[in-house]
Amino acid sequence: MIGAIIGDIVGSRFEWDNIKTKEFTFLTDECFFTDDSVMTLAICDALLTARGDGEVSAQAVASMQRIGRHYPDCGYGGMFGQWMWSDAPAPYDSYGNGAAMRVGGVAYVATSADEVRTLSHAVTAATHNHPEGLKGAEATAMATYLARTGTPLAEIERTIHEHYYDMDFTLDEIRAGYRFNETCQDTVPQALKAAFAATDFEDAIRGAISIGGDSDTLAAITGAVAEAAFGVPATLRARAMTYLDTRLQAILERFERAYPGKTAE
Prior knowledge:
Layout (H helix, E strand, L loop, with lengths): L1 H10 L23 H15 L6 H13 L9 H7 L13 H4 L4 H4 L3 H12 L6 H18 L4 H11 L7 H4 L13 H9 L4 H10 L4 H16 L3 H8 L4 H13 L7
């Protein structure tokens, strides 16, 4: 899960100050974790805590509220912020890209494509129960799962194209005109393309950020797939960990003990 978190941290300083190039300093003192990292780890916590499939959705609600409330100012959307503090949280028909940025842990817990679909729906529908929200989360989880289990990126891209989104574009073609967008349908395909077109983990994150838009969320989605495909260099992982506080570090380390990520050679 460190891949999604690195994408979030690297993209954090560009969300409101887009950069349309891959040429930038990767991690700086201006970088920070946002709600993308917090909610990614909240879902990881839910997946570790739930005792059975029937409990996953309820545990997702509990974990997102409990962990999220420690970070009230980390960038939640308005509707999600209200949901997080609600005494009676209910889904609100969202198709925002928050559904996709937090779902990567599903790809490590699931043992089949069918389980990816089941778990993705369980952790997503608690908030983002619009069909486009559910689709964006499932596409991200499926791409990450397929990469984790050794499917070549070109084959994964064909699967996404056939079952989820039109992938007939390049980053170079969309870079000039792509603008900030918080929907799954205009964030997930672009984020996945950055992973599919990359040569290694860092190149994937640079590609995602280079098109502009909702940079931290784009790069978090890309990072989940890119970690599974390429692995994350140990030195980069160690540096990224310094941006997290001890609470978030502990959740990540607990998840990685149960479901190890991939380290780049």
